[in-house]
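Batch 3, record 17
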Amino acid sequence: MTLNELRYLVAVADHRHFGKAASACFVSQPTLSTQLKKLEEQLGVILFERTNKSVRPTGIGEQVIDKARRVLDQVEDIRTICRGDREPLCGARSLGVIPTLAPYLLPWLLPPLRRAHPALELIVVEDITERLIARLKEHSLDGAMVALPTSASDLIERPLFDEPFYVACPGGHRLARARAVTLADLESEPILYLADGHCLRDQALAICGGAARDPTGDFRATSLETLRQLVAAGLGFTLLPALAIPEDQRDLAGVAVRPFAGTAKRRIGLVCRATYPHLDEIDLLAQLVIDHLPASVRPLRSALNQ
Amino acid sequence: MTLNELRYLVAVADHRHFGKAASACFVSQPTLSTQLKKLEEQLGVILFERTNKSVRPTGIGEQVIDKARRVLDQVEDIRTICRGDREPLCGARSLGVIPTLAPYLLPWLLPPLRRAHPALELIVVEDITERLIARLKEHSLDGAMVALPTSASDLIERPLFDEPFYVACPGGHRLARARAVTLADLESEPILYLADGHCLRDQALAICGGAARDPTGDFRATSLETLRQLVAAGLGFTLLPALAIPEDQRDLAGVAVRPFAGTAKRRIGLVCRATYPHLDEIDLLAQLVIDHLPASVRPLRSALNQ
DNA sequence: TAAAAATACTCCATAGGTATTTTAT
DNA sequence: ATAAAATACCTATGGAGTATTTTTA
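Prediction for the assembled complex:
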């Protein structure tokens, strides 16, 4: 049985005339006759009772025609579904974003994304890099925005922007009035870090002197907002990524944010499986992110290589 | 798009492995790969994300696979339906029977028919020959049992049996005690006929002297039972076909039934469209009728020729 | 007799096979 | 290094065409 045979069957049922049915199918009458006969032979059933003046479905013919219509409808559905999917970034997509980025970047990203791709049903998953990558590999995410580099192999990375780190100082501290803070300034100060698993914790540790300087008694916040409150309470210093700093309110609520002397930054990128079939969409999204970043971060020109 | 392509698609979805899927479909791996790739190209969509170690459906792939399964299920349904229909005399069939035959023959026919073909859902339509034939031609009947010959062309006739006519005499009449009744006996007696349209009326008229002897004032009953009552009331004579006569009760309720001298009879046959696709079923039914007739009629041997 | 379906036959597009290469772990 | 998918290339089945015959209303 072939789909064409079913098409011919339905055409004959509709036209009740082999010649007209054949025209409607854009084939010759003998072709249609032969195929229909073959179908009848394969099914072991007579589908139409025909004379040279009339063509009428038999009882079993009616049933088969009915089913055949449904088959063809569903085939057409498949075509429709796929045609709809040709449009990039439409339908369900899931994007992972690390917690130290999501709340600060998404307000910049989502409005233009929604404007450009209204049919996109984006699901944002906020989690630490390790778990985001695990989910990428098990196909439960389409892409993820994390700090680069990811040690993971068989992933493709699209660098998006470099995000400088700032130093958050307790409001009353003398450094709160410095123009910039150096690594030496922090040498003897308590540093507050995020909890284990956050990449930002590791980056901060690396910058501020490594694990050696990390006293076991340190506070371990699970969000930058908590960390910010701890700084405001005078418990110590911390590093904040640029996007986490309200643009015009660098000194607010007992926290003074000062530039870090030197070039402390993290690189944020979009990653996906190397085999992900819609790299075009990844690139589209990457470009959209780059185009709508605030001035506080440095976009990396065009995400099309490596 | 072809059904085989959809089969390959579903097989790959099930096995998540091209080689195994190919084996399951009894084709080579390259064949399956090629066909699936062609399907993807035609649909303009990637259905599986594959490495050499893993094969996983994409989002759109899941949707298409789902539809494809339904398509294949329905195709299988078609096969099942047709396989079921290969068994003769099962499912819905409609049979027309003339009113002067139905109530007397069906009690003989239906029980063995039900026994031999329990899955048959027979619809019996009782009407006069003319309308039965009209319904045959418009395909709203599969077959009909009528008196032969039918003038209708493009119908096939299967003779079933010859049914002798008897004379029903009013109980008190002198002929009620005759051994047999001759045409001459009836010469001066009133004859009762069925209403217009019944073939039995025409046959009785033909036997008893034609339209010339039919006074306009005659009673026109619409059933043999009414006619029998009229005879019992002494209003006249009539012809009754053999089956209409209770076997062991030829003289009952004021009606004496006597043989007709000579060979007055009607021939009953099964008719269907010449193009009817299940002549085998017609023959099956004909044989079944013949095999279960009461002794009062003469079956016509084997219904397989004209 | 005329209109329509069925048959005869020819051709080529393509599904399927085998052998091989590419790829990714 | 190895297992698996992709590619190259060949073969042959069968879908589709034209020309013709058969059928039946």
